[in-house]
Amino acid sequence: MMTTSKTRVGRAWLRPAMMALAATCIAAGPAQAQAPSDKMVPIAIPAQPDAITLNTGPLPGAKAQESWHSQYNSVFARNVTTATLTPFLPDPAKATGAAVIVAPGGGFRTLSMENEGWDVARALAAQGVAAFVLKYRLNQTPADMPGFEKSMSAMFSAVARPARPTPEAQIAGIAPQIADSRAAFALVRSRAAGWKIDPDRIGMVGFSAGAMLTLATELAGQDAKPAFMGLIYGPLAAVKVPAGAPPLFVALAADDPFFANGGFGLIESWTAAKRPVEFHLYEQGGHGFGMYQKATTSTGWFGDFSRWLGMHGYLKPKAA
Question: What GO molecular function terms would the record report (predicted)?
Answer without folding.
Answer: hydrolase activity
